[in-house]
Amino acid sequence: MYAGRKVEEASIFDLFDRPFHPYTIGLMGAVPQGGASSQAGDRLADISGTVPPLWDLPKGCAFAPRCPGASARCLEERPPFQEKRPGHWAACWEHDNAA
Ligand code: SF4
Question: Which of 21, 25, 55, 95 has the highest count of CB atoms within 10 angstroms of its CB?
Answer without folding.
Answer: 21
